[in-house]
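1st attempt posting a full record on here, be nice pls
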Amino acid sequence: MVFHSEYADVEPVDEPIHDAVLGGAAARGDTPALIDGVAGTTVTYAQLDTFHRRVAAGLAAAGVRQGDVLALHSPNTVAFPVAFYGATRAGASVTTVHPLATPEEFAKQLRDSSASWIVTVSPLLDAARAAAERAGGVREIFVCDQAEGHPSLTDMLGSTAPEPHLAVDPAEDVAALPYSSGTTGVPKGVMLTHRSIATNLAQLAPLMPMGPGDRILAVLPFFHIYGLTALMNAPLKQGATVVVLSRFELDTFLAAIEKHRITGLYVAPPIVLALAKHPAVEGYDLSSLQYVISAAAPLDAELAQACSRRLGLPPVGQAYGMTELSPGTHVVPLAEKNPPPGAVGKLIPSTRMRIVSLDDPARDAGPGEHGEIVIRGPQVMKGYLGRPEETAAMIDADGWLHTGDVGHTDGDGWLFVVDRVKELIKYKGFQVAPAELEALLLTHPGIADAAVVGVYDDDNNEVPKAFVVRAAGAPDLTGDEVREYVAGRVAPYKKVRRVEFLDAVPRAASGKILRRQLRETS
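the predicted structure (as tokens):
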């Protein structure tokens, strides 16, 4: 059966994302839009409106043209939204890059996305230069702050160049190009149009309201679609104040909640765990908090309840979605006083869902039966950049996107996610593609074969575990050597955390790795 949202449909938002989010910014004047959670630097709404327009003018004057791709390579800063909206107003699609990506990883994304421009920050400049050199085709590297030999977005704030006024087709033009592994394989560029992102904000707003007086702590990264939507686009569209942290450190995080009187937290399960159990929490005044929402990875129901009890808050809510869905499809509404433990939410407006049988994909699962979650709605991605076959495997001919997640609903429409069909590992909310790590492991001369699966550590985080077959000439290869080899070539969140040696990797007759068998033996 097709599940429909109980909430009224919303009209598609046919506006460029910079107008959809910042259309009311100038009128909000001196209301703080962005605050650096440590330094205290504040950008008002009027300044944000002016600054992003000046940056758009500066980028256009430098040669950025409609249809170009700009790589935004930065941790969370108050300049990140200025760069993002400035780039989209100049006509560029923004591909967001993990700030800890190695030059090799960064170069792959630059090549795949055909990025012509990079915006980074001076501490990451060496990695950006190395990536640009490897990739080729990059015309200029801009910095948000200052670095000799590179144009600065800060200097663009004084630009007298004319502001670009471009005709944007919101339904077709790509605003954001984050990279996701989808249900399997290597990272792919997810084409999110101006309409899909802006409409998803309209879908979420009735269930997750915020506005002037609300203070949202942005500790999850803006480069990730969760942070881009929940911590940047949504609060800035609705007039809330975003307090920005560049990375998660528990004491800094707790101090920011206390100092800036944070009202809402959008986090991932590891932060919920810290709030529930870490003794440092007792040293801070967190009484300003009104709610906590967790997403990006499954949250244990008992852990959610422990966090709520400790903070004296309503139940920790959850949300569900994926990069390919702009990203939201389900949320626990903020007004819900007693959601079922473990539920990830209800369908948001204008969204349809089916639960497809795991045994027979042509059949919908019966009531209470587990099946694959498939989604249709205006938030579905345009497709994977340059990968029509992978797009067709993800979105069927009727427009249903197959998430690769296994779930079921109860009689009241609450969704519960219980497993994943897909092979993707989610380490603290970040996507890790087993195929990418396996390909890297096989470049080691001492490794004959390898497989990677997700297993859970003592803190209930899913971590990559490598099953390795030693090459004939490397009988003494150790687990530490394997871990070090990978760690030196990938971003920290992709590191192999555990290693087990096997005589052979179990495979089906087709050659496909039997990952479930490996997980069951771990």
